[in-house]
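The records we work with from here on pair a chain with its fold. Here is one such record, which you should read through line by line:
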Amino acid sequence: MSGKRMIKKFIVLNDRRSGNKAKSTFANLVLSFFGRLAKTNTKFVCKGSFDRAKDDHDAGLTPLKSKRLIIAEELKALMTLDEAMIKQYTGGAGVTVEGRHLGSANTFRYVWQAGFMLIFNEGCCPKFVVGDAAFAGRMIVAPMRSKFVARELTSTEEPYTYKMDKELAQHFPTWMSSLADLLLEHFDINGLDEDKIPDVMKEWQKDILADSNPIAHWMGTHVQITSRPEDFVVLGQLHALCEERDKVSAKEFLRLGKAYFSAIDNVTVTDKTCVKVSGVTKTVRNVVRGALFQPSTSTSSAAEEEFRKGLEEALGHAMPKSRLPWLRNPTTGCSLELDFFDKEKRIAVEFDGPQHYEFPNPYHRTLKEFQQQQYLDRLKEELCERHNVTLIRVRACGDVEDEVSHALELMGENLKV
């Protein structure tokens, strides 16, 4: 409220359960509290916005003098953030803004005092330069985990589900003093240290950075995270192996690769280091330690493909195999795969053959291998629940129509929640 920008951060509100997460309601509460000191301006944080300012040369800056908060709502995936501008105006105290009006020699100059709040739905993250460490370091992600439903709650609700109060905004005027007390209680004049940011906020930030990286999926299916410093891969060699190399230059792959691995614990990227190759020590550039190359082992049975065809025809849209940044075996670092995934509805389907629930079976040679399969199945369920993804399991029975009908029935039950 004082206008002294001591913390070099901006905040992002994001969700993982489509619809009714109260992001806009929270933004309206904050706008009510800041009053004339806050302004909603989505275009201002996007590239190309200044080109549309036809009436002046101030790039839309004049109306923002003395503002304390800029809220950019309804950001979309087709938009591109102006990272340079956001970094400049979140640079701490003393950032100066200046310009002049069209047709006038008069200039203006003032100290920037506003913070940024960016709001977008899951899957709608605007484009930004992946690998910009300064930009990523200033991003704080607030997980909007709660979901509000316009009905009575049941005993089978997902975590963080609450009954919607459609009259909530009417109470805002009476909450202002309590909100001020809450902000003062948590105000720290010394700023925000990294160790004070909750782990869940760091995790959500990593997911946003990973989802924005165009080579993240390929990395997840072809690189195993071992966390052992003696294991390594070379980014230049990974580019040569990547099927998408025609779309991504070697230089761009290097930048995106460094960004991808920088978000993973116990993995380091060094510009130049000595490694042993075939018994010979060599100096190699852009080495990633704590990882190994693993060829993709994604396969589908004929039964699964028949089920896929029937399910996608019934739904009217694709449900591709997916490997998500957080879906990893914590022991080996290997990424796990969902057979079917609807990103928008955050619902996944696993098509389980007998090797998932019967032993002996043709796929597992030992009981230990079968038990490992069951462990991975449970792990998927736990990780999906933790990340608000509804996971449905369909047992293969040999009748595609029955399998698809059962899946649709389960999906319908879950989507009603």
About this structure: The radius of gyration is 25 Å. DSSP finds eleven helices and 17 strands in the chain.
